[in-house]
User: Fold this.
Amino acid sequence: MKPSLRGKVAIVTGANTGIGRITAIELARQGVKVFLACRSESKTRPVLEEIGRLTGDVERAQFLSLDLGDLKSVQHAAQVFLSTGLPLHILVCNAGLAGQKGMTSSGFELAFGTCHVGHFLLTKLLLECLKASAPARVVVVSSKAHRHAKDIDFAALRQTTASTGGLKEYAVAKLANLLFVSELANRLKGTGVDVYALHPGVVASDVWRSVPALLRVLIRPFMITPEQGAATSLWCATAPELCGQSGGYYENCRVQTPSDVALDQNLAVRLWQSSEDWTALLQQ
Ligand SMILES: NC(=O)c1ccc[n+]([C@@H]2O[C@H](COP(=O)([O-])OP(=O)(O)OC[C@H]3O[C@@H](n4cnc5c(N)ncnc54)[C@H](OP(=O)(O)O)[C@@H]3O)[C@@H](O)[C@H]2O)c1
Assistant:
């Protein structure tokens, strides 16, 4: 994709900070028109202004209101984007949270509802647009933490976070990201829309906000910067050599084998079907 990014259109979720912010800025610098799909316009405004300054084009980046925990908001965001009549070449499902507890307003465990269900519905609603814009890509920011999830307890997905630090549920949410990519890639074979999952590295971003301040200071030297963390997202979104290699999982811009459970096709199909049922019901 890289030689001709000018004229391309992307959506990056969670682009007001961290890895998503750098992903949006770098895509914009390469000529892509970027929609920053975030829940707070005031927190996104500085990034929009930064992109305007860096590219000399105030139209290069736009805010798209999106709360992934609220499926009505997801539906509205997709409608607003589709109403622009623009093509969509790159969808980066980046937003997420870790170590927080609760439920989304649409009734899912917080990490699962945000990382998986919201992105599942957003992608589905944009799928025809992606296909019509092919070659196109969907990039899903998962995590190495998916390896801690050995299975999915489907009943727990509709309940509040049960584990003490919420990291057990985060692992399940990131496993769901990988199963989603695997099944989406199967369903998109032959359409020209490629799908990629990735682990960005351990990145010094706001994702650690629920970790005690002292511990955060201690672990920060061992983390990479958001610029380094965005490298694999950008690689998956733009590298010409990845064209047609759909369904892979990447770390450090290199393909990796995910956990055995992430390769379980039956589980991927079950998650897809459940996600279809949940989102169909909640959209009514
Ligand atoms: N940092 C790491 O070490 C690491 C490692 C592995 C994977 N990851 C993954 O990388 C991705 C980006 O994380 P990051 O490190 O850049 O974290 P971050 O700095 O905390 O950014 C997370 C982004 O997600 C957004 N978000 C959270 N809940 C949302 C919702 N309901 N609707 C819309 N947006 C929402 C946040 O918006 P607000 O600012 O409004 O909260 C923020 O823009 C995540 O999927 C994370 O799981 C990160």
